[in-house]
Amino acid sequence: MVIESLKHLGIETVFGYPGGAILPIYDALYDSGIEHVLTRHEQAAIHAAEGYARATGRVGTVMATSGPGATNLVTGIADAYMDSVPIVIITGQVASGLIGKDAFQETDIIGITMPIVKHSYQVSHAEDIPRVLAEAYHLAGTGRPGPVLIDIPKDISNQKAPYRKVDDVQIPGYQALPLPNLLQIERAANAIREAHRPLLYIGGGVIASEAAEEIQEFSRKCGIPVVSTLMGLGAFPPDDPLFLGMLGMHGTYAANMAVYHCDVLIACGVRFDDRVTGKLERFSPFSKKVHIDIDPAEIGKNVIIEYPIHCDLKHALQFLLDQEPLAPSDNWMSEVRMWANQHPLQFKQEEDGGLKPQYVIDLLHKMTDSTAIVTTEVGQHQMWAAHFYQPKTPRTFITSGGLGTMGFGFPAAMGAQLGCPEKTVVCIAGDASIQMNIQELQTVAERNIPLKLFIINNRFLGMVRQWQEMFYENRLSESSIGQPDFVKVADAYGIKGLRAETPADAKRVIAEALAHPGPVLVDFVVVEDENVFPMVPPGGANVDMIERGWDE
Amino acid sequence: MKRTLHVLVNDKPGVLARVAGLFARRGYNIDRLIIERADVPGLSSMEIGTTCDDATLDQVTKQLSKLIDVIKILHV
User: Fold this and answer.
1) Which fold has domain B2-73?
2) Which residues of chain A form CATH 3.40.50.1220?
3) C-alpha span between A463 and A249 (Å, rounded)
4) What is the complex's ipTM, to 2 decimals?
5) pLDDT tens across A455-474, in order?
6) Regions of chain B where pLDDT drops below 70
7) Which backbone phi and psi does A228 adopt, to 5 degrees?
8) What is the pTM assigned to this prediction?
9) Is B63 on the interface with A (CB under 8 A)?
10) Given its phi and psi angles, is residue A500 left (phi above 0), alpha (psi -120 to 50 degrees) or beta?
11) Which residues in A lie closer than 8 A to residue B66 (C-beta atoms)?
12) Does the structural domain A357-533 have CATH classification 1.10.700.10?
C-alpha cells in the first residue's frame, strides 16, 4: 500500500535502511521499480534525502525501521526543520497491539519528534495510507517546507487493502499559499520609495519560493544593494556590483556595515537568526523593516517589523514590482561599493608556503566557474566555502545552516548527485566532520556516485579552536583531533584517493579529481592555524566585527 | 496580563500534546485549560488561559495556528 502510494505520487528515489518493523514495506519495495538507496546509517539516509530535496526542489523521502532506526533519524529531522527542507519520513513501528508495552525496538518517535516536524501521522488503518501519504507530501512541499513524519505499525503495513486513488488533498485549516494583502504591499512600497539607504536582506526563502529572478529584477530595477544569509547564497550572482555578500557573524565588512547603516531593510524569506543579527538591540538600528515571509510566525518573532507582508515571496515581489517602488540611492550605492572595494574578503597564499584552506576553495570556484553543486559540512571550512566558492545560481550551495550539523555534507552530496546526475557535485568537508558519516564511502563506492569529496584537513576542530583562542584564553580543550590516513581509507573502500600538500599540488589534484568520472576523495593538508575573518564576536553588533586575526 | 485563547482543534489522540508542547517549548505558561467536544463532529474546542504581553500573545497565536491540527483560533 505504501509503495503503491509512493508510485502514484511520482516518487522515484527513496533513501533508507531496513529493519524488523518496516519489513512489510521493504518486501513491497523489492520488485516495485522504485530506486532505493541503501546507506550505511539512517542519519546519512535522511541527510541524503535533504541533499536530494535541496538540489532538485522536489520532496525527499527517507525510510527506516522502528526504535533505533527511527531515533537515528532525529538529527536529520531537526536539521530539515531548522532549514525548512521538504522531506517525508516513513518509519516502521511495532504492531499496534504492542504499542505502549515497551516492545522490542519500540520507541515513541511521534512524541520524540513532535517539536521538530511540520506535522506527523501514526497510521491506524491500512486504507488511510494513500490519503496520509498524499497529505504528507503536500504538507512537506508547500507553504514553508519542512519534514513530515509517518509512523506505520507493522500490522498495518502487513494488511492488504484495495488502493484508492487520492485526487485532491484537502487539509482543513491549512493554507499553503496565503494571498497577498495589497494594502500591506502598498505600504511597504511607499516606505521603500521614501528610503535613502534601502537594503535587501535575502535568505533561504528566496530559493524555496523560486524567487531568485524576481529578487534580481527588483534589486536591479530599483538599484537596491543586496546582502544574503548563508542559506540565501546562490540566489544572487556574486559578481553583480549590487551584491555585498553574506552578513552576520562571518559576514563581509560591506554587508555588515550596510545592514547597520541602512534606513529601510527589506527582509525576504529570512528569520533574523542570531548568527545574522548579533546583539538584537543594536541590529540595524536606524532602519524601518519590511519583512516578507510565508510563515506569519517569523514576522515580528525576533525583531519589530513596521511593514509586514505575509505572503509567498515570489508573489509578493511581483506585486511590489508593479508598485514601482524606486528608491533614489546613488550616494548610498557609492558608499556601499566603497566598503566592498576597500574591505574585500582576503587571504594570503605564498607560493612556497603551507597550503591555505581559502586558496583551495578559491581554486575550486575558479576551476569550476562555480557551476558545480557544493555541499559543506560544518565549521571553518563551511565559512570559507561561503566566502570563496561564490555560488551563482540557486540550489548550488547546500549547507546545514540552522542546526549546524556536522556529518550533513557528505551524505547530502550523495543525495544531490543522485538527484542531479548531470552536475558536478563537490562536498567540502572538514577532517573532523567527515568522520561523522565516513561509512558512506561504501554507499558511494558500490553505486559509483561520482561526487568529489574535498577534505580540508587542519587536524583540528577548527571553529572550536578559533573560539578557544579568541574567547577562552587559548585553552585548547579537546579541539585537537586525530584522523586516519584518508587516502588509505579511500583505497580501502575502492575509491580514488588523492592528496595535496602545496598550492601547486592543489591545482593539479583538483584538475585530476574533476576530470575523473567516478568518486574521488582528496585530502588537502592545509595549515593548522588559519582562522575565519571577519568575525562579529558573540554578543556584539554587526559593526563590532573583527576584520583580521590578532597576529596581523 | 491574563489572556484566554479559544482554539478549535482536531479531536484526535496527541493533539493536546502538540498544543501543550508548543507552549512549553517556547517558554509560555498555561494557567488554565478546558477541553471539550465541539459542536462540529471530529473537532474539540480548547480554552487556554495564559499570562503574557501583547507581543508574546501574537507569537503564541501565530505558532498555534501553524499546527496542522489547529483548525481555527476563534478569539483571543
Assistant:
1) Alpha-Beta Plaits (3.30.70)
2) 182-342
3) 13
4) 0.93
5) 999 999 999 999 999 999 99
6) 75-76
7) -130, 150
8) 0.96
9) yes
10) beta
11) 295, 297
12) no
